[in-house]
Amino acid sequence: MSMHTRKYLGIGFLCLLSLVISSQVLAQGDPVEKRRLLMESNNDAATKAITQAVREGNFAEVQVKVKGIMENMDRLLELFPPGSLSEKSRAKPEIWEKWDDFSKYPAKVKKAAQELADAAKAKDEVEVKAKLKSLGEACNSCHKSFRAPKKAS
Question: What span, in angstroms and rounded, lies between the C-alpha atoms of 9 and 26?
Answer without folding.
Answer: 26
